[in-house]
Amino acid sequence: MKASDCELNFHFRNSQVWSQLPSVPFSRKHCQAGLVTYPNGDKGILVGGGDLGQRSVEFLNLDTLIWEPKQSLPYDIGFGASVPFQNSFLIVGGDAQFRGYLDTVFYYNPDLDEWELIKTMDYTRRVFAGFMVPDLYANCY
Fold first, then answer.
1. I want to staple 93 with a disulfide (CB 3.0 to 4.6 A). Which of 9, 85, 103, 125 is the partner?
2. Strand runs (DSSP E) across 3-71, as ranges?
3. Cβ(48)–Cβ(33) under 8 Å?
4. Can you count the helices (H) and strands (E) in the chain?
5. Which string of DSSP letters, residue by residue, matches 108-135?
C-alpha cells in the first residue's frame, strides 16, 4: 500500500456530506486516531501507530489541511481503542510488535506534544471497543 492509498474521509454533520481529506503521509494499518485541540486553537485529526513497528504520529490541521509530524508513540501500538478524552484522546490497550498485547492507557497531551502513560489495566486488551462512561452512570451496576 502506498501513502496515497491511505485515505481519510470526514463526515460533516451540518451538511451531511462525506469529504475526502488529504491522504495520511505514511501508509498504516490498525492505527489509532482522534480529534485534538491544541492550546493555540488548532484543531485536527491525530493519527498514529499501526503494524510492524510503526510509532510515528501525524496531525492534520483541519483549517489548513496540511499534515505535520508530532511526538511519536513510546513504542509501536496497533489495534488499540481510541477513546475521546478532554481535548484529545486515549489509546487503550492494543498490541506491540515486541511487547505483545498491552494493558496500557496512553493520553496524548496536546499542551506538551507528548504521550503520557496514565494507567495500566488489570488485563491486556486488543481489538475491542472502548468508550467513556459519564459520571451519571458511575454507580449503576
1. 125
2. 8-12, 17-21, 32-37, 43-48, 57-61, 67-70
3. yes
4. 0, 11
5. EETTTTEEEEEEEEEEEE-S----PPPG
Joined grid coordinates for residue 55:
510509532
Q: What is the pTM of this model?
A: 0.85
Q: How far is CA 84 from CA 2, 11, 19, 116, in A?
A: 29, 17, 22, 15
Mean pLDDT of successive 10-residue segments in the chain (141 residues)? 56 85 82 94 92 88 94 93 94 91 96 97 86 70 58
Stated length of the chain: 141
Cα gap 78→67, rounded to integer Å: 21
Domain boundaries, the chain: 30-127
State the DSSP code for 12.
E
